[in-house]
Design a protein that fits this description.
The chain is an alpha+beta fold. The protein is built from 5 helices and 7 strands.
């Protein structure tokens, strides 16, 4: 399945709400989004215009669309630091899109933008240590584990480790 990164559209909001309300998808998140409304998703889409020029602290959010331009998920570079040339990576996909290679393709495309278009030096992420599916994706995309905070997040009645992963421009391979 081909994937395209494009600007989020208001029409994407109902499908965005699908993953926000999917308890299986939410298992991998620190912050639950089950209480998000269609108005919340619509507002997010409206406010996520891709900037013509990056500014300090800006976040860039893209829709992951299939070959029919149907929204499959969101992928982001958050809190871009122009001084440090770094940004935080985030991705979320509708469960119907899992296992089709979309996440890897979209991640590679986003990292290519980060390093070759935006001139970043480093992209990093944090992930719950028990989110094996996500960790497998990140490692396939070239992210390397940089650290782990033991029993850092209280989730579903227990403490879970919180891991830090990163990738440098010189490590990235399309």
């Amino acid at each position: 399945m081909n994937t395209v990164l494009r600007e989020l559209k208001v029409d994407d909001a109902p499908l965005m709400l699908e993953w926000m309300h999917d308890e299986e998808v939410q298992k991998g998140f620190q912050k639950k989004m089950l209480d998000m409304t269609i108005d919340n998703a619509t507002s997010f889409c409206e406010s996520s215009k891709i900037p013509e020029e990056l500014t300090e602290g800006v976040s860039v959010h893209f829709a992951i669309a299939d070959s029919n331009d149907e929204y499959q998920g969101t992928i982001s570079l958050k809190d871009i630091s122009l001084n440090n040339k770094s940004a935080e990576y985030a991705i979320s996909l509708r469960r119907a899109s899992w296992g089709k290679g979309l996440a890897k393709a979209a991640s590679k495309e986003l990292l290519d933008k980060a390093f070759n278009e935006y001139g970043l030096h480093r992209v990093y992420l944090t992930v719950l240590a028990d989110n094996e599916r996500a960790i497998h994706l990140y490692e396939k995309c070239g992210f390397k584990k940089e650290g782990q905070l033991r029993k850092h997040i209280y989730k579903d009645g227990k403490y879970v480790d919180w891991c830090l992963y990163g990738i440098l421009a010189e490590e990235f391979e399309m």
